[in-house]
Specification:
Blueprint (H helix, E strand, L loop, with lengths): L3 E2 L33 H5 L7 H14 L2 H6 L9 E2 L5 E13 L6 E12 L2 E14 L2 E8 L1
């Protein structure tokens, strides 16, 4: 997922993690389990074992507005200076449609997904094919085709 901005940083742009998602909360990525045991541990520094795990954790990072994690897992060649979180947007649900490559035995992979959201009270969805690569052994997000 690639919500980027080139605008200068504003203090309001650095949103804090919403209190609705806590360690015991169901993980926003759609897998069964608690946030702390799923994407939360990746946000805390554990490595993603597959590109799909990274993509799910990046979706969850958008849900909880974890800018540091999003930037840390973005390839330096395509990483923006900041992430622009739309205050009128709420991420509702993730559907992973297809994954190619991206396992422990690959150096690249893609994940096609649909992320359902509500923007300004209206339902919407982002359909994207994200590309990932390994950089120094860790999966990173490169870019997307919409």
């Amino acid at each position: 997922m690639s919500r980027r901005t080139t605008r200068p940083r504003r203090s309001a742009a650095r949103a804090e993690r919403p209190s609705a998602i806590t360690g015991p909360s169901t993980c926003p990525c759609g897998l069964p389990g608690a946030y702390a045991d799923c994407c939360g541990r990746l946000h805390a520094g554990a490595a993603a074992s597959t590109c799909e795990a990274l993509m799910r954790s990046r979706y969850s990072a958008f849900v909880v507005r974890d800018e540091a994690y999003l930037l840390r897992t973005w390839h330096p060649d395509t990483r923006p200076p900041a992430v622009d979180f739309d205050p009128t947007m709420r991420w509702d649900r993730l559907e992973v449609l297809e994954t190619t490559g991206g396992s422990a035995f690959h150096t690249t992979g893609t994940v096609t997904f649909r992320a359902h959201c509500t923007v300004g009270g209206q339902p919407d969805a982002l359909h994207e094919k994200s590309r990932f690569t390994r950089l120094d052994g860790a999966w990173v997000y490169v870019a997307a085709d919409f």
